Amino acid sequence: MTKSQQVIAQMLDANTEIFKRFREIHDKYAKDSSAYQEEFNQIGEEVMTIIRKYERILMSRMGSGQYNKYSNQVSEVYWREIRALFPKIDFIGVEIK
């Protein structure tokens, strides 16, 4: 298991309830974005705060020492794995009319 996967697993375990709520609204949003946009954005903001917090935790582990040059790649891997879990994550805050 990679460091990114470990941090994501830790994040999901520590925040089970909000990620469960987000999974439900994420799936509804994927089917009908206009009907669930407001709720998706509202819960999504909380989720993004958590995701960014854990990204900082991951980066702080990589940011010092000999692994500093790999931190950008690690961040990309982290976000790729987040997007695999939640394909619509990049639509948080987007207003579709």
Order of helices and strands: HHHH
- How many H/I helical runs? 4
Strand portion: under 5%
Question: What spatial form do the alpha-carbon principal axes imply?
Answer: elongated
Residue stretches low in confidence (pLDDT < 50, at least 5 long) are none
Structural class by secondary-structure content:
mainly alpha
User: Nearest-angstrom radius of gyration?
Assistant: 15 Å
* Mean pLDDT over all positions: 91
Strand tally is 0
Query: Distance between the terminal alpha carbons, to the nearest Å?
Result: 41 Å
The biggest sheet, with number of strands, parallel, antiparallel or mixed sense and barrel status, is: none
Provide the helix percentage.
over 70%
Number of domains: 1
Mind explaining what this structure looks like?
There is one protein chain. The chain has 4 helices and no strands. It is 75% helix and 0% strand. It has helices at residues 3-14, 16-31, 33-62, 71-85. The chain is an all-alpha fold. It has one domain (3-89).
Topology:
Blueprint: H1 3-14, H2 16-31, H3 33-62, H4 71-85
